[in-house]
Amino acid sequence: MEGFVYRIDETQYTEKDLERIMNEENVVDGTKQNILIKFKSDKSGAIDELRKLQRHLDAAEARRKFTEAKNYFLLNEIYISELVGSKIKEIIANLANLCGILMAKLEDPTYHRDTTPIKENSAKLFDELRTLLRNELSQG
């Protein structure tokens, strides 16, 4: 959810392009019509609305993927060792914390909390999990 993302601007797209993008994003008809109407008189404002909508759609997709991964782990936890399961639970907790911060930032763009320590901890936890899995797999 963070990093560089290419988004459209009013100089690059026509109304048809905008409509196509919103159809691909499955934007509901009422919202789509409002943005298209605004595009005719205020291209920049319409693009800003679409960007905000895309951020919300991205956040919803991220939440869905996170929940899907967490549920997959819970359903398959019985098949992995206690040590690996414990490490995965740490990763899930860390990612849940990061998602919470990113959702808060989405709701309030002025909200700021440094996520660097959480991201660094995530990388460390994933490395530890990778090592645990390699060790377990090498033991047969």
Account of the 3D structure:
This protein has helices at 15-24, 29-41, 43-76, 82-107, 116-139. It is mainly α. It folds into 2 domains: 1-79; 81-140.
The gist of it:
It is built from five helices and no strands. It folds into two domains: about 1-80; about 80-140.
Task: Report the β-strand fraction as a percent range.
Answer: under 5%
Largest sheet geometry: none
Q: Count of DSSP helices? A: 5
Structural class, by secondary structure, is mainly alpha
What is the element layout, followed by pairings?
Elements: H1 15-24, H2 29-41, H3 43-76, H4 82-107, H5 116-139
Helix pairs in contact: 1-2, 2-3, 3-4, 4-5
Keywords summarizing the entry:
140 residues; mainly alpha; 2 domains; 5 helices; elongated
